[in-house]
């Protein structure tokens, strides 16, 4: 390639970028926090119903301090760093039955819903500004009748599980339960919603994407995961597990079909589709046949909500969980009730729910080409759309289809899962795995690196700098920028990753902390003839097929025939994508994000086969534990500061600025605007467990009954940030067809930060109430 010369403009841009980066790095280096120094205050709020008749005029606002107790709230304060706990004694288990002890639990893990980036698209400025639905951790514990072996599977409504999150959860589980719940028998899996808060990572690439580490969100997630496990542990009872499988149609496309076509034709001919359409469902019931819970694994990206969204939510898989839990938990508000339904992630790496496919948003023509680019505007114009009128409609269409299929498979499940429980786990240095390609030839994994097409994004969320997918050559301009700021990548790492042109040589960067993990978890748990492989990233469709087939064959070769192997994605630590060797050659987004090089999949197949062999031959105790991953104590503070909230002169927090109309019809939107405060305060002071309620007046009991909260998909909570601590909060209720006619009101619950001179800041709770309004059906 001919040497490129730079224009005066490009030279000036390079100089400007270098200077800006140098200043930023200098500032960030001053902003370290020690993870144990921030306190997270928590408590419980129980909504009491008002015994007076509905107000017909005006509104009310009440406020209470975290240091006082009022008639509507109770609260307590504890530090985030828990003191050592003694091992919780195990309750006696009933043993004389056929099946498993089963426990299910669900707990909130939402974290911040404002002043924090959303995790998934890595789009600057896509920060949270409210909430559409809450995020939950859903835990499932299975134990043998005598209690000797048990396994834990947790599906969490977050983008992915970070290594720091897992290590902290395991540490606290050990403090509370001793050796009962361990690294080998606990799987933590993220659903991969791209609309959950970021800020809970320790490796620098993800800290940068998160715009800092949020200890408040991290601690809230840890607490929610632990609480869901605690609930499942407490609720364990004898029961049975059934498995069923079936295809789900009309909800997926392969977003990198040209990469998929690189796989051997003979391999592709064995499959009817370039996505995995099969859903695997576990049905859990007690010995009386009463429902306990469901786990579903299905390959789909939760990106129906696109990168223009600013409301925290659980996307399409979360909507499927919501529908099934609401159906099974009749009479309960969302997020409550005994039945727990998890729609867990699988080999979703190249699978999109935006089934209308990629089109140029400026011309409408298809951009389904190898580079996902448009004739006018380039790759930034090439975006895929879902089946609905807007992204929320698409979310519900895709989620409802998954819910309906899971419901059918659950109802017809008749194949019982029986047999012993087992688990195997290793920590592996993924930068240095020798991969045996055959009996005489070996290859090696690489230090982590991201390619040029990583910056291009995907048709579900394009990058901001007009990079193109499918790049197998670098660019001198961006190479120069990288070299000046970060240093040059070594010849070794460039050679190892070919044909990937390296944009970021993250495996050679260690300031302020390593940019990517070296030590990665590999893990399998088995329930009789079911094997759950915990994948630390996003497998593409064909990668998942190869791993399933290899693990199943390994089990079979040691006497465990007809094993069902499921891919559980986004588990334990995040390492981006894993493509096949052939897909890697195309260097689209997924391949450019395969950080350990072209032989990553082969390495994982080798490692997981080793775990399967250990389980099948009962030699798990002989497995090498592997090098323990680090847990960094100092991380970069979020750049958005905490500021004091202020109400307008003559107003109080919770006052109504725009009242509800006197009357609404079913299908309309009731909207109320309140004097607000920053919602992130509610992570520090959890006096209120919801930002809103919709309440209906019951004349017979002369009381208000809650019909919706902020976990309901028909409500929206928007936070509008103003200047100098001023803000408004908008609550919307999209009145469903099922709403009963009657008198309603909307309540807003918030927390404001107050700080007097020379005194520490305090977080005060408040609430506001709309005037009453009538809902009519015609």
From TrEMBL:
Positions with a binding annotation for Zn(2+): 192, 301, 538, 577
Q: Where is this region: Disordered?
A: 44-92
> Which controlled-vocabulary keywords does the entry list?
Hydrolase, Lipid metabolism, Membrane, Metal-binding, Sphingolipid metabolism, Transmembrane, Transmembrane helix, Zinc
Comp. bias intervals (Low complexity): 54-88
Cofactor comment text? Binds 1 zinc ion per subunit.
Q: Can you quote a single GO CC term? A: extracellular region
Q: Which residues form the signal peptide?
A: none
Coiled coil (UniProt feature): none
Kindly give the Pfam families that the UniProt entry links to this protein: Ceramidase_alk (PF04734), Ceramidse_alk_C (PF17048)
Question: Any idea which residues are catalytic in this one?
Answer: 352
Q: Name one GO biological process term.
A: sphingosine biosynthetic process
Which cofactor names does the annotation list?
Answer: Zn(2+)
Q: Where is the Neutral/alkaline non-lysosomal ceramidase N-terminal domain?
A: 100-606
Q: Which reaction does it catalyse?
A: an N-acylsphing-4-enine + H2O = sphing-4-enine + a fatty acid
Q: What is its EC number?
A: 3.5.1.23
> Any idea where the Neutral/alkaline non-lysosomal ceramidase C-terminal domain is?
608-775
- Which spans are transmembrane here? 12-33
Q: Which InterPro entries match?
A: Ceramidase_alk, NCDase_C_sf, NEUT/ALK_ceramidase_C, NEUT/ALK_ceramidase_N
Q: Which Gene3D superfamilies match?
A: Neutral/alkaline non-lysosomal ceramidase, C-terminal domain (2.60.40.2300)
Give the GO molecular function terms: metal ion binding; N-acylsphingosine amidohydrolase activity
- Similarity field: Belongs to the neutral ceramidase family.
Q: Could you identify this protein by its name?
A: Neutral ceramidase
